[in-house]
Design brief:
- By secondary structure, this protein is mostly helical.
- The chain has one domain (7-162).
- The chain contains five helices and two strands, in the order H-E-E-H-H-H-H.
- Helix 1 (7-23) runs antiparallel to helix 2 (37-64) and helix 3 (69-87) packs antiparallel against helix 4.
Length: 163
Amino acid sequence: MSKPVSMIELFYDLVFVYMIAKATGLLHQLEHGVIAPLTLVVFAFVVIVFINSWMVQTVFVNRFGASSWTDIGFMFGDMMIVLYMANSFSSALDANLRPFFLAAGLLSLTLCIQYVLVWRRTDNRDDRAIAQAFSGILGVRTLTLLGQAYCRCARASGWRRLG
C-alpha cells in the first residue's frame, strides 16, 4: 500500500533539512581546536529531538494522513515552529536552552494533538492502539519539554531577583 508524496510533505522535509544544517552551526565553536563536550551533548540532544519529531510526523502522514485541511494546517504550524527553532540557534545555545525547550514542547504538543484526533475519530482497533501509544508518548514528552522551559524561566527570573 503506497501513497503518493504531496508537495507539502516534501516542503516539510526540506524545512527539517534546513534545521539540521543550522544545528551543525553549533559545532563551529572550537576551544583550542576541539569541540567542547557540552557543545557536543547539546548538539546531539537537539538533533535527536528534531529527527524524532520528523519521524513521528512521517509515521503520522504515512499511516493516517489524508491531505485534509487539518493535516495541512498542523504541518504548516509545525514548520513554523521548526523554523523558529532552527533560527534560534546560537553559539550560546548551551547557556540558554529555554527557547529550544519551549518550541520543542509546542512541536510535541501539535504532534500529540494530531494523534489524539485520530484516536478519537477512528474505529479501526489497530489504528486506535497505535494512535493511543503515540499520543501517550508525545504527551509525556510534551510535559517534560515544557516543564524544562518553565523551570529554566523560573530559575532565570529567580536568579535575577536574588542578584
